[in-house]
Design brief:
Blueprint lengths: L1 E2 L12 H10 L5 H21 L6 E2 L7 H8 L8 H5 L6 H10 L1 E3 L2 E3 L4 E3 L6 E3 L2 E2 L11 H12 L5 E5 L1 H6 L2 E2 L10 H18 L3 E5 L9 H17 L4 E5 L9 H6 L4 E5 L6 H8 L5 E7 L9 H15 L4 E5 L18 H4 L5 H15 L3 H16 L6 H8 L12 H12 L16 H12 L4 H22 L3 E2 L11 H6 L1 E4 L6 E4 L2 E3 L3 E7 L6 H9 L4 E7 L1 H6 L9 H21 L4 E5 L14 H16 L7 E6 L8 H6 L4 E4 L9 H7 L4 E4 L12 H14 L18 H21 L5
Parallel strand pairs: 1-14, 2-8, 7-9, 8-10, 10-11, 11-12, 12-13, 13-14, 15-20, 20-21, 21-22, 22-23, 23-24
Antiparallel strand pairs: 3-4, 5-6, 16-19, 17-18
Helix pairs in contact: 1-2, 6-8, 8-9, 14-15, 16-23, 18-19, 23-24, 27-28
Length: 766
């Protein structure tokens, strides 16, 4: 049996890559310094995997920003607007072109928007969406893949396994940028480049190559299935001496089982953490020539593996295939888990004994291999850890479970329908058409982060910390007033993260010191761990919202994170249904919403950017999920009076296929990301005749470039074609936490000017 790993975290145990990238982007360091940090991280990752005894160690799983963007650069799928990055500034390198595609470019007279970004399947990882045109040609543009293999080969005592996104998945991850074709039609244009790369890897000494094809776990059209057959038959014919491992994950193969098993490759990887029941079906389908990689260790969560359950799957596969055709592996790349549990010195020992991070999951692969070879002591130690968790009294709270069981339909309904509420709210707030606001957070400056670190280390008292946060809050209020925003926010300076902050104040959560995972680019998050029943012991945000409202005559929104997003962006307990945990969180948020209203907060935003992300990958499973997810939001939002306006925010989501459920959330105002997609997402709301108010994001906060007034006016005009003017708000795409104050103020001033111009066009001056 071979021990296989699909991918490893790349940001560094202390977020070294994040810091190095941000230093490079700011011009504080050069290219060589950035490359040195990246090289060191790769060497460390390979060493850790080699010491853990992994046989198939991945390379090319490292990325400066995103693996899909890496593939676009490699394949020459570079939108024409970026050509000037290299032609007009000879000092720019391939790396600068790469970052321009990810972040936009605003330098030396050039002003180029970034490529679109969206969620990687049902995770909180974001990828850069490839852009395709009819009859598009591809070429081998970047040699990163072969360079990564050669580098890994020098640093390992075994042959590394290059990892590439498979050709069909790569096309399906993209978007057509003109009409008259389907992106899957480009498969014949794409395959020659893949074949060229694979043959070069073979010439360099590669034995195994992993091609990630997670779309094999998705609903596929007949044309897409045929593309798989064509792609892998062609590759097999042209790359005869190379062993290919096709990796699927995040869901069962389902009705694609026969297709996957028929591909002319050497091995198939399946996710048995998410879908253990698929093993029997897969074993019945695979031919004698195919090996099977068993993803028995959960690559997306942090719970210690239950060896008995995994061994039952491994033994079943061995009995059918023999040992030589069975690989043991995590379910997917370990990109989605923190680095090393040993770095956590503050977690309660009882709870820590239930956990495994990326480093420990490598050990679990090796330990399962040893147990399968007869090591009984490792199995007994694991049994004790599993039993400790099962019987712990810290997990189950009868009062919380009883309250969830007592939820009624009345708890999910606002007192009046939206048209009635809208009239009441319009009269109460007396806002102009196209009211301007932001999504919630303002820049978390180095001073703010330093302040929080000092508090944690005991360098300052809670009172000193609070005084400084109050000062930053008042300053943010004054800046917003000066800019001319209509509805203000307090800035969220007291919050480390939109989920972690709430988890720290709720019962049932535990936290890490260094449990960072990558969300996109240099953006890292530290998800809390939900280990037990969730409840709210006291107010969480009331103090700061009340304080901000007392310092201005304008409306200040209360800012909360919604129950589904807290669930999705945490490491969630796996011993009860996710729907049950979400209801517990919803009741806690409901209590906070009611407390905010009592404190005089008249607008309350409950962010739910993860609603779309949480959709199951197969459409047949959508109704059950949407039923409890939308219900949870309604529970959290329905405890207030009609005159209190409930906002929600969603970003980087496609809404067309769930628009009816978005409407069923019944938020008074929804703000969404639309700038990178040039208002495309609004078409779903327009076609559906979405009845409530909408704030389409008019500029991309994930890029450092400052948008012009004119481009935001253009976007608002597009929105005006699709939506009633009285229902449109004006706001950025998302929170401004990661931006700098200078660019934030400039962008918001332009946004307010754009709103003023569009008001004049519809007949109302400011």
């Amino acid at each position: 049996m071979q021990k296989n790993n699909l991918g490893y975290p790349r940001i560094g145990a202390r977020r070294e890559l994040k810091k190095a990238c941000e230093q490079y982007w700011s011009g504080k360091t050069g290219r060589d310094e950035l490359l040195d940090v990246a090289e060191r991280l790769r060497r460390e990752n390979w060493k850790v995997q080699q010491e853990a005894g992994i046989d198939l160690i991945p390379c090319n799983d490292f990325s400066f920003y995103d693996q899909v963007l890496d593939m676009s650069l490699t394949l020459g799928a570079i939108p024409k607007r970026y050509n000037a990055v290299l032609t007009q500034n000879k000092e720019n390198t391939e790396l600068d072109l790469y970052f321009a595609m990810a972040r936009g470019y605003q330098k030396g007279g050039l002003d180029i928007t970034a490529m679109e970004m969206t969620k990687w399947f049902d995770t909180n990882y974001h990828y850069i969406v490839p852009e395709f045109h009819k009859n598009q040609a591809f070429k081998w543009f970047s040699s990163r893949i072969t360079e990564a293999f050669s580098e890994a080969k020098k640093n390992l005592d075994k042959t590394p396994k290059p990892v590439l996104i498979g050709p069909v998945t790569y096309l399906l991850l993209g978007k057509e940028k003109e009409e008259g074709f389907e992106r899957i039609d480009l498969i014949k244009n794409l395959l020659p480049v893949y074949i060229e790369i694979l043959n070069k890897l073979k010439d360099l000494g590669a034995e195994w190559v992993q091609l990630d094809e997670p779309f094999l776990a998705m609903d596929l059209s007949e044309k897409e299935k045929e593309a798989y057959r064509l792609a892998y038959t062609t590759i097999a014919d042209e790359c005869k001496e190379l062993k290919l491992l096709v990796a699927t994950y995040f869901e069962a193969l389902g009705d694609n089982t026969a297709l996957a098993a028929s591909l002319p490759v050497s091995a198939l990887h399946i996710d048995l953490a998410r879908a253990p029941r698929q093993l029997d079906t897969v074993l019945d389908a695979i031919p004698d020539s195919l090996s099977l990689s068993l993803g028995v260790i959960d690559g997306r969560n942090i719970w210690k593996n239950d060896y008995e359950k995994s061994l039952s799957l491994i033994d079943k596969a061995i009995s059918r295939l023999g040992r030589d055709r069975v690989f043991i592996a995590p379910s997917c790349s370990l990109l989605h888990t923190p680095y090393d549990l040993d770095a956590e010195t503050a977690i309660d020992p009882e709870i820590k004994n239930w956990l495994a991070f990326a480093r420990q999951k490598l050990d679990e692969v090796s330990e399962l291999h040893k147990i399968a070879e007869g090591n009984a002591s490792l199995l007994e130690e694991n049994r004790k850890a599993q039993e400790s968790r099962r019987i712990s009294e810290r997990i189950h709270k009868p009062r919380v479970k009883s309250r969830v069981a007592g939820i009624t339909e009345a708890d999910t309904e606002r007192r009046s329908p939206f048209p009635v509420r809208q009239k009441i709210q319009k009269k109460r707030f007396a806002l102009p058409l196209y009211p301007t606001t932001t999504i919630g957070s303002f820049p978390q400056t180095p001073d703010i982060r330093k302040l929080r670190a000092q508090l944690k280390k005991g360098g300052i008292s809670p009172g000193e910390y609070a005084a400084q946060i109050e000062k930053a809050t008042v300053e943010a209020i004054r800046i917003q007033e000066k800019i001319g925003l209509d509805v203000l926010v307090h800035g969220e300076f007291e919050r480390n993260d939109m989920v972690e902050y709430f988890g720290e104040l709720l019962d049932g959560f535990v936290f890490t010191q260094n449990g960072w995972v990558q969300s996109y680019g240099s953006r890292c998050v530290k998800p809390p761990i939900i280990f037990g029943d969730v409840s709210r012991p006291e107010d969480m945000t009331v103090q700061w919202s009340r304080f901000a409202q007392e310092h201005t005559g304008k409306i200040v929104k209360g800012m909360l994170t919604g129950p589904v997003t807290i669930l999705q962006w945490s490491f969630v307990r796996d011993d009860q249904p996710r729907s049950e945990t979400t209801c517990q969180i919803a009741l806690a948020i409901r209590d906070e919403v009611v407390a905010l209203e009592k404190a005089g907060i008249s607008m309350i935003q409950i962010d739910e950017p993860a609603i779309r992300e949480g959709l199951p990958l197969r459409k047949k499973d959508w109704p059950a999920y949407l039923d409890w997810a939308i219900r949870a939001f309604r529970i959290s939002a329905s405890g207030v009076r009609d005159e209190t306006q409930i906002h929600t925010h969603m970003c980087y989501s496609e809404f067309n296929d769930i628009i009816a459920h978005i409407a069923a959330m019944d938020a008074d105002v929804i703000t969404i990301e639309t700038s990178r997609s040039q208002m495309e997402l609004l078409e779903a709301f327009s076609g559906f005749r979405y009845p409530n108010e909408i704030g389409p994001g008019v500029y991309d906060i994930h890029s450092p470039r400052v948008p012009t007034v004119e481009e935001m006016v253009v976007l608002l005009k597009k929105a005006a074609i699709l939506l009633p003017a009285e229902n449109i708000w004006v706001n950025p795409d998302c929170g401004l936490k990661t931006r700098k104050w200078e660019e934030t103020e400039a962008a918001l001033r332009n946004m307010v000017k754009a709103a003023a111009l569009i008001r004049k066009e519809v007949g109302q001056t400011v």
